[in-house]
Amino acid sequence: YLTRCILSSLEPMLISEANERFSTAWFTICQYYGEAHRSYHTLKHLEYMYTQAEKYGLISLQESNNFCHSLAIDFAIFFHDIIYDPKSKLNEQLSADLFKEYFEKYMPPTFVSTVVLFILATTNHMDNVSCDDDLKIFLDLDLSILGGTPLEYKNYAMQIRFEYNFVPEEVYCRERAKFLRNMLKGNIYRTSRIAEDKESQAHSNIEWECSILESGKLISDIS
After folding, report:
1. For 59-77, what is each residue's pLDDT tens digit?
2. What is the C-alpha to C-alpha distance for residues 184 and 223, in angstroms, rounded to an integer?
3. CB-based contacts of 30: which residues, under 8 Å, 6+ apart?
């Protein structure tokens, strides 16, 4: 499914070298996203982003008339979490660097800089209040799980805890709740289609997790 998504975008552009390069990169993508310390930041996360894109009609997987619009979002989806170490603050920069390593010589400079911008923007979603429409779409897709069903959100929250299992429970509850409370200070989504459908549910989901964390418990403690 994922390879169909990206290759269907590449083929109409007739970028044979980039197409071949992506085929080479696909092994690396699968290898990184399959690391044992991951639970949420896996290929399933990327697939969920694509299903949400299709659901809301935010990007077309059939037509790629706008090179930067469609492909930049595609490549940002695949590479934005390719480097993921919960203990590191360099994940986004290293992910952008790996994208450049694979494609800088095969894609137009403006396209490469756009993808790098998108990847780096995930360092702190809430800082990107003013950004172009393409970036808004990408960031909303990345956070779309926050407005998922209660069950989807519960699974997501437990997966995040798994990835941070090296953090003592008391510290995790305090710092995770603080992080989530900060997200509630403003709107989570920027695109109207997602905001209309998910904003309220996202706030409800986050409030629910915060109430549990602030009671000193983990989501896994709740039946």
Report:
1. 654 444 443 456 888 899 9
2. 25
3. 43
